[in-house]
Amino acid sequence: MRPHIFLTAEKAGQLRSVEEARAATRSGIGQELWQGILDRTDADLSRDPITPRSEFPEREAIHARHGNADWTACFAAGQRILRAALINLLTGDERYRDLALRQITSLFDPKDWPMWCDNAHVHQGSPPVDLRTGMLC
User: Hey, which of 53, 55, 96, 97 would disulfide with 87, CB 3.0 to 4.6 Å?
Assistant: First the structure.
């Protein structure tokens, strides 16, 4: 199970409001976690969108060489969008909104992402497992 953050505009039951999430980033473990999110996302501001041809440390180079839309590339693209959107929501800094939108735009550009399904599922005739069926989540 991956951690999830559910936020509401105003306090609703046990769900955190946006303001409570902002407050949690100001001290303690929340501040430490927030700083890690900021540091990673700040580095993304100057990087190109992630595509099936992208190389990065967590990814096997063979997948990038073959332009494979493997789980690692899909997950990295999705996490970049989610981190940037969260930072934009909590800070209002439009650079992060723009970062999320650049990555989303790339996902729908057939020059960047010609296929959304990874090579293994395409060639093995398996049911399509791809960005549209949950790999981005």
Answer: 96
